[in-house]
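pls read this protein:
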Amino acid sequence: MAKELSTKDRKKLSKKSFALPGKRKYPIPDKSHARNALARVAQNGTPAEQKKVRAAVVKRFPSLGKKKKST
């Protein structure tokens, strides 16, 4: 499970720790939060936001961009 970010902790995060830094939306300080950001933007984000969040997550955590092979 992702560690819950308190308001205080969220305010301490740098712009690089957000998938949409201008809006400070979708925090991605670690892989768990990055996965959560992808799920949340898929539910509530516009197609443009989805594309930007996916790009930010893959840039920061390249292993999350790889698709799993089915056997």
Notes: The chain has a mean pLDDT of 89. The longest helix spans residues 31-44. The beta strands are 18-20, 25-27. Residues 37 and 44 are 10 Å apart (CA to CA).
